[in-house]
Amino acid sequence: MAPFTLLPPAAAAVPLVCDSPHSGTFYPDDYRHAVPRALLRRGEDTHVEALWQAVPAVGGTLLHAHFPRTYIDANRNIDDLDAALLAEPWPDPLAPSEKSRLGFGLVWRNIRAGVPIYDRPLTVAEVRNRIDTWYRPYHAALSDAIEDNARRFGGVWHLNLHSMPNDAYERLQIASPHPLADFVLGDRDGTTCEPGFVDLVERELRACGYSVARNDPYKGVQLIARIGQPARNRHSLQVEIRRQAAGMQYLIRAALVATVASALGGCAVITVTGAAVGLAATAGSLAVDAAVGTVKITGKAVGVAADVVLPSGSSDK
């Protein structure tokens, strides 16, 4: 099994790269977990890549992981590793974050609070194998896509795609005075994406009747922190879609994706001048004006009206 699928533009290319790092469902034989597979699947953002499957048709690039995030999490720094998981000392310096403290670091310790994934310590060799076989190739593919678009267009927009369970606050051990929003847009407190683009996405979602929060409870983690450099005209936004409760499962309507990617669906113009981005609503197409010229896309928005059934959800981004 390859570590990922990379879908290039199938129409006139635009400077959009979307990635889904947590929707992988292939469980390698060397995982050797102690909890049932059905419980592990709660860590997946299952089918998120399917919600965005039309990205290539409107000129964007779509990358999605095949491996599960609980095995190794592509949205973590490589040194965000819990030393308590290991059977022996890690040979390089580690910098475990709050994610690792909760059990959701580079290699997850828990599937949820108080429920460990393993009944054994992991060897340095097996963790390194996960990094070299799965993590590094995914990051290399994403980095290549970002760099290729930045060189070609003079800038790039990156959407980091996720879904979130209804009990996200509880899983994150956050006492929130308000319910979880339908959408959470994460830009690490305004540092990774041009504000006008985030404003556009939020405005379109609210116009459709959805509640929207920014950076609450998800600000974005490693990927948007690395990619989002607005001063270099590189913009990165994390998009979280809340799952709708339906019995023991959750549903995501792919129609929601059309509003998240409104700039691809023919309702916005984005003008690039240096590091600045100007936005103006239109009814026709997306135009990206950059030093290299103008690119336009027309046609339907990302996502089609359909329901995708998901397991009952991940703990953390």
Class from helix and strand fractions:
alpha/beta
What distance lies between the first and last C-alpha atoms, to the nearest angstrom? Answer: 24 Å
Assembly type: single chain
Radius of gyration, taken over Cα atoms and rounded to an integer in Å: 19 Å
- State the share of residues found in helices, binned by percent: 10-25%
Query: Which ranges are low-confidence, i.e. pLDDT below 50, for 5 or more consecutive residues?
Result: 245-312
Main-sheet strand order equals 1-3-2-6-9-7-8
The string of secondary-structure elements, in order, is EEHHEHEEHEHEHEHEEEHEEEEE
Percentage beta strand: 15-25%
What is the count of helical runs?
8
**How does the major sheet shape up?**
7 strands, mixed
Write up this protein.
This protein is of the alpha/beta class. The protein contains eight helices and 16 strands. The protein has a seven-stranded mixed sheet with strand order 1-3-2-6-9-7-8, with helices on both faces. Strands 13-12-14-15 form a four-stranded mixed sheet, with helices on one face. Strand 7, helix 6 and strand 8 form a beta-alpha-beta unit. The longest helix has 30 residues. The radius of gyration is 19 Å and the shape is globular. 46% of the residues are buried.
Considering the chains and any ligands shown, give keywords for the structure:
7-stranded mixed beta sheet, alpha/beta, 8 helices, 317 residues, 16 strands, 4-stranded mixed beta sheet
Write a compact overview of the structure shown:
This protein has helices spanning 37-40, 48-51, 98-102, 124-153, 168-171, 195-207, 222-227, 255-260, and strands spanning 4-7, 16-20, 61-65, 110-112, 115-116, 156-164, 183-186, 212-214, 234-242, 244-246, 249-253, 269-273, 276-280, 286-290, 293-297, 307-310. The longest helix is centred in the middle third of the chain and has 30 residues, at 124-153. The chain is an alpha/beta fold and 317 residues long.
